[in-house]
Amino acid sequence: MVVGLGNPGPSYADTRHNVGYRVFDLLEEKKPEQVFLYRPSVFMNTVGGPVAQVARKKGVHPHELLVICDDFSIPLGTLRLRLQGSSGGHNGLDSILASFGTKAVPRVRLGIGPVPAEADPADFVLQRFPKGDRAVVEKMTARAAEAVLAALTDGMDYAMNQFNVSPE
Known about the structure:
- By secondary structure, the chain is α/β, with parallel strands linked by helices.
- It contains 6 helices and 5 strands.
- It has helices at residues 19-30, 48-58, 91-100, 121-124, 134-154, 156-163; strands at residues 2-4, 37-38, 66-75, 79-82, 107-113.
- It has a 5-stranded mixed sheet.
- Strand 1 (2-4), helix 1 and strand 2 form a beta-alpha-beta unit.
- Helix 5 (134-154) packs antiparallel against helix 6 (156-163).
- It is globular.
- The mean pLDDT is 95.
């Protein structure tokens, strides 16, 4: 089960917090038949309950999920795939981990940082990318979709080795 995180509604569509939705959209175009894609339509802070409910209904265990989300502590354009770990302060991921009661939830984190020193991180993630960053974002989301497909076909270890590198 692949879960793309973001906030619902047109006012959030192109924000930094919604890069998970962007990757989800790319995956919908190419998804393998055996994979269930889920795009929660609730706000980031409350996503854990719906994700856990759908996963349980589908018989999916936490280690069989692949969550796609933004991360402001990672430089813009960089991907970081992990099999488990803390939420890193990401409210959506924190909600999912809390709902399952485990940190063993695989994830693909997309770098949207750094947060400028004078900015509030909560405001930063809800801003749109400046025009100068849009090409980097497009390339990053395309790479993230490739990383998800690689994880599904060749396993997370392979995908981590291929995609946990800084972009050119």
